Amino acid sequence: MEKIIVPVDFSEYSEYALKAAAKLAEKNNAEILALHMLEMPEIMLTSSGEEPQRVIYFLKLAEQKFETFLNKNYLQKVKVTPIVKHFKVFSEVNEVAKEHGADLIVMGSHGVSGAKEFFVGSNTERVVRNADVPVLVIKNDIADVNFDVVVLACNFSEECVASYIKASKICAEMNAKLYLVHVNLPNDGFNSSVEIEKQVVNFFTKAERSLDKMEDVHYVNDYTVEDGIINSANKLGADLIIMPTHGRKGLAHFFQGSISEDVANHSTLPVMTFKL
């Protein structure tokens, strides 16, 4: 891990993310790219006359805020590069990640719920949906980023083999214990214990060519996948939840939603997402 992007809006939640990123950067000798995005209307970016002067004013104001915001003791041992972009939409964080070759995005979030979530969503959701690199969502001022116990949501389909291998690699780098959680739903999604065990055997045969990891699988019955994952993570004493995502966009996302985004929004634990 060489570069970590932290979107900054100067709120307490972006500082939670900055603190977590600083601990990760110090452990991995990585650089932090502190990114502030001025979400300006198109007219302010293209017009002539007074509007460009206003853009320059807001850019200078953001730079001044950075001087204060980044003047923290926990950043003294870390290289931090402030970046100010005048993008129109928050989803373009991914463009910055590609431009700088970032390995991880660490995002602070307070989460949203109800009608606001359904119709508007959150900046965190936009980043999770569009990012090609893993996104670590931080909700609180966590004491440490020693992720010793990690939960990966898995339905043991062939599609999940790639996400399991990637999650295993991440956990190996962090020296963390990885548990796989399967949520058994009522009605159409219900499977018997025998059916689930057959799926698990087939899964590990393809992913590991061994059944040694069978003991790390946990089954839970719940009404939603989201609740099952969060409840299991708390029961297992997890420090981190890993969720693969399809990165659905447009109408497909609006009608089907994304379990990964829901978990990232509602879990009090840190959540890491990566695109399949």
From TrEMBL:
Q: Give the source's domain of life in one word.
A: Bacteria
Pfam families, alphabetized: Usp (PF00582)
What the entry lists under SUPFAM superfamilies is as follows: Adenine nucleotide alpha hydrolases-like
Residue ranges occupied by any UspA domain in the UniProt entry: 2-139, 147-274
Question: In which family does this protein belong, per the annotation?
Answer: Belongs to the universal stress protein A family.
PANTHER family xref list: STRESS RESPONSE PROTEIN NHAX (PTHR46268), UNIVERSAL STRESS PROTEIN UP12 (PTHR46268:SF6)
Q: What is the official name of this protein in its record?
A: Universal stress protein
